[in-house]
Automatic annotation (TrEMBL):
<keyword id="KW-0472">Membrane</keyword>
<dbReference type="Pfam" id="PF06912">
    <property type="entry name" value="DUF1275"/>
</dbReference>
<keyword id="KW-1133">Transmembrane helix</keyword>
<feature type="transmembrane region" description="Helical">
    <location>
        <begin position="98"/>
        <end position="115"/>
    </location>
</feature>
<feature type="transmembrane region" description="Helical">
    <location>
        <begin position="187"/>
        <end position="207"/>
    </location>
</feature>
<keyword id="KW-0812">Transmembrane</keyword>
<feature type="transmembrane region" description="Helical">
    <location>
        <begin position="67"/>
        <end position="86"/>
    </location>
</feature>
<feature type="transmembrane region" description="Helical">
    <location>
        <begin position="20"/>
        <end position="46"/>
    </location>
</feature>
<dbReference type="InterPro" id="IPR010699">
    <property type="entry name" value="DUF1275"/>
</dbReference>
<protein>
    <submittedName>
        <fullName>DUF1275 domain-containing protein</fullName>
    </submittedName>
</protein>
Length: 252
């Protein structure tokens, strides 16, 4: 039986996509806020990090280049791992997506443990590695995994860790609406992920100020919960529900 078709785009499971992207955007906003509060650097937006790396090349005393490099490497590594895990499937959910989410949860736990007085932090100190760089590496790799997963949805690449493109797309939809109308599901995904990312930032500051690095256990639990839901959904069918090959490409 073919996947359920969307009324205006032919894309399946609009509710699944919206719920997926909204929850993960909330989680990413939370992680980024905690990173800014504790590490003083964002870990989900490589545009600013890339600019700072360039500036640091010209003036090595301007930023901590090794921390910026760790964020860049971590995000890239996370996205690469997500791509390798999800390469065999075109589905929106399933056991492979669960594996990515469980791995993300594990990295966030390591980031939390690396910030606080734990065995993980003691091991980092014993190795003589810069603590901030390792903590940022773990958090950035977690968000790289997440963004790699949502970006791999065939026909509907969704960004959940940074929103320059999202705001651009919202502006284009508004600008074109008089002639082309507004596709409600696209607008809903764009607006919802943006609003919840901001909401995640608010929650991240509140809980980060109270819990410190342990606040990262909250998005870790969120990822683990979504991963479990993926496993349960995948257990009810023989394979991942594919996205139609003729689905309209969307960059969100």
């Amino acid at each position: 039986m073919p996947p359920q078709q969307s009324r205006d785009t032919g894309l399946p499971h609009e509710g699944l996509v919206l719920g997926y992207s909204a929850l993960l955007a909330l989680s990413a906003g939370f992680v980024n806020a905690v990173a800014l509060l504790i590490l003083a650097v964002p870990v989900g937006n490589l545009t600013g990090i890339s600019t700072q790396l360039g500036m640091n090349t010209a003036n090595p005393w301007l930023y901590e280049g090794h921390v910026l490099g760790a964020i860049f490497l971590g995000f890239l590594t996370g996205a690469t791992i997500a791509g390798a895990i999800l390469a065999p499937t075109d589905g929106l959910a399933g056991p492979r997506h669960a594996a990515v989410l469980f791995l993300e949860a594990g990295l966030l736990v390591l980031a939390a443990a690396g910030v606080e007085e734990t065995v993980v932090r003691a091991q980092i100190n014993a190795l003589g590695i810069e603590q901030t760089a390792v903590q940022a590496l773990f958090a950035a790799a977690a968000l790289g995994l997440q963004n790699g997963m949502t970006s791999s949805f065939r026909g509907m690449a969704i960004r959940t860790t940074h929103f320059t493109g999202t705001v651009t797309d919202l502006g284009l939809i508004l600008g074109r609406s008089r002639l082309h109308g507004i596709k409600n599901w696209k607008t809903a995904i764009l607006a919802t992920t943006l609003v919840l990312f901001v909401g995640g930032g608010v929650a991240g500051i509140v809980f980060g100020a109270r819990l410190g690095g342990y606040a990262l256990l909250i998005p870790a639990a969120t990822c683990a919960t979504v991963g479990t839901a993926n496993l349960l959904q995948g257990a009810g069918r023989s394979g991942d529900a594919p996205v139609p090959q003729d689905a309209e490409p969307v960059q969100v």
